[in-house]
Every structure is written in C-alpha cells, then in structure tokens.
Design goal:
The chain is an all-alpha fold. 72% of the residues lie in helices and 0% in strands. It contains 10 helices and no strands. The protein has helices at residues 8-23, 28-33, 41-64, 74-98, 105-114, 120-136, 140-151, 162-183, 190-217, 224-230. The longest helix has 28 residues, at 190-217. It starts with 7 loop residues before the first helix and ends with a helix. The structure holds the ligand CC(C)NC(=O)n1c(-c2ccccc2)cc2c1CN(S(=O)(=O)c1cccs1)CC2. The ligand CC(C)NC(=O)n1c(-c2ccccc2)cc2c1CN(S(=O)(=O)c1cccs1)CC2 binds at residues 26, 31, 34, 45, 48-49, 51-52, 55, 89, 92-93, 96-97, 109, 113, 208.
Length: 233
C-alpha cells in the first residue's frame, strides 16, 4: 500500500486553486435564464451564447489565479487560453449539469440545450461526456485541478516554451494524483479515469470546430469574445 503524503506546499496549492475556482463561478442569473419559460431555438442559441461568453470571462479570471501561470511567457498565456477555452467550457458545463439541482431542472436544462439548433451528431458525444463526468462524482478540488490541468496542456498550437508549461502541468498532475488516492481509496484507477476524460474533451473540441462551421452557414451570430477565443471570423 503506497503511503501518499501531500506536502504543506501542495495543500496551499490546492487551496489557492479551489478558492479561485469557487470565486470565479458563472453568475447565477446567467445560468438561471436557461431554466426559465419555453424559448425558441433562436432564443436558446442566444442564451447559450450569453452563458458561454460569460464562462470565457470567468475562465480568464480563474486562469490568472493559477499559481505560476502569470510567470509564463505572455504569448504562451494567450495560446494556452485559446487552446483550452472550448475544453474548459465543456468541463464547466458537465460540472454544472452534474450538480444536484432541484427536481426537473436538469431535464429542462438538457431540453433547452437540445433545442438550440445544434446538429444531432454533436449532441450525442456532448451528452455522453456530461454523463461520464457526472458518474465520477468529482470533488470540488478535483474539478478545479482537472480544469487547471486542461488549461496547462503544453501541446496547444503556438505554445513556444513547451517545457515551462509541462513543468507547471506536472506539478498539478502530481497533486491531483495524490488527492485521488486520498479521496478515493477504494478506486485505485480513479486518477486514470479522470485523465481519460481529458482525452474525451479533445474529441469534443474537434466536434465543436465542425459545429461552428455549420452554425456559421446557418448565419448564427456569436459574440466578439467567442469569435476571438474560438478563432471564428
Ligand atoms: C455553463 C456554460 C459554460 N455552458 C454552456 O455555455 N453550454 C452548455 C451548458 C451546459 C450545461 C448547463 C448550462 C449550459 C451547453 C452548451 C454550451 C455552450 N456551447 S457552445 O459554446 O458551443 C455555444 C455557444 C453558443 C451557441 S452554442 C454549446 C453547448
């Protein structure tokens, strides 16, 4: 039985990341709108645009509070944000959906998302992902660290100092690994299962790029921030 020891510094790191993650939540009023009375597909789409835009703003603030992030090369900080925005958005969405909500809220939310003009072949993998994340029953710390690890992925396009990002990501991976052993002692494979979700996120990222083009053809508008972060003209 491997003796797992989380150092004082690592606990401080977990606390800093969890505080930042909890401080930067999507404003309730924005997500609450998604639960209100029946909207049309266009209005649902507009609502998702609003929620997604608000999440990008939250993501930027959260990322700035990741210990070590601001000491990375400035252009690399931008490359990491642009490269991880879609994945962080799907991770946050899955976490929102897997929260205990009042009876029927989840169904309404899912219905709203299904009726937003999104192509069917994108829905299935997306809702599969939401289900897979829900089944993990991740703790707050695990959610915050997994989002941090997604942001600190060294092989995003245009990242120059690959090693610097890799070193930072490795620090976070080590902390998450130890936390998983401590918080899920009966599930030795839990950490591996968490990392498996990161692979699923990359597939969703590819789907998302295709979906954007299909929306563009149906003349759907996005906000300037979403166009900027998703490289949509
Ligand atoms: C919480 C935020 C980050 N979630 C969010 O914006 N969602 C959610 C979602 C999931 C659970 C609860 C509440 C909302 C589902 C979807 C999105 C966004 N995207 S999108 O960014 O591609 C998009 C933008 C505009 C048109 S489509 C499509 C799918």
């Amino acid at each position: 039985k491997e003796k797992v020891e989380i150092t004082k510094e690592q606990w401080a790191l977990i606390k800093a990341i969890l505080d930042a993650y909890n401080r930067h939540q999507i404003p309730q009023d924005v997500t609450k709108k998604l639960l209100q009375e029946q909207y049309s597909a266009e209005e649902n789409f507009l609502l998702l645009t609003e929620v997604a835009t608000s999440q990008v703003q939250v993501l930027v603030e959260f990322t700035k509070n990741i210990p070590g992030f601001l000491s990375l090369d400035r252009e690399d900080q931008i490359a990491l944000l642009k490269g991880s925005a879609v994945e962080a958005m799907f991770l946050r969405s899955a976490q929102v959906l897997s929260k205990k909500m009042p009876r029927g809220y989840t169904e309404v939310l899912e219905e709203r998302i299904r009726k937003s003009g999104m192509s069917e072949e994108f829905m299935t993998p997306m809702f599969n992902f939401y289900k897979n994340i829900g089944e993990l029953h991740m703790t707050q710390e695990e959610q915050a660290l997994l989002t941090t690890i997604t942001i600190l992925t060294p092989d995003r396009p245009y990242v120059k100092s690959h090693e610097a990002v890799e070193r930072l990501q490795e620090i976070m991976l080590d902390v998450l690994r130890k936390l998983c052993v401590l918080q899920h002692p009966q599930e030795p494979q839990y950490f591996a299962r968490l990392l498996g979700r990161l692979t699923e996120l990359r597939t969703l990222h590819h789907y998302h790029v295709e979906m954007l083009t299909s929306w563009k053809t149906n003349d759907h508008k996005f906000t300037p921030l979403l166009c900027e972060i998703w490289d949509v003209q």
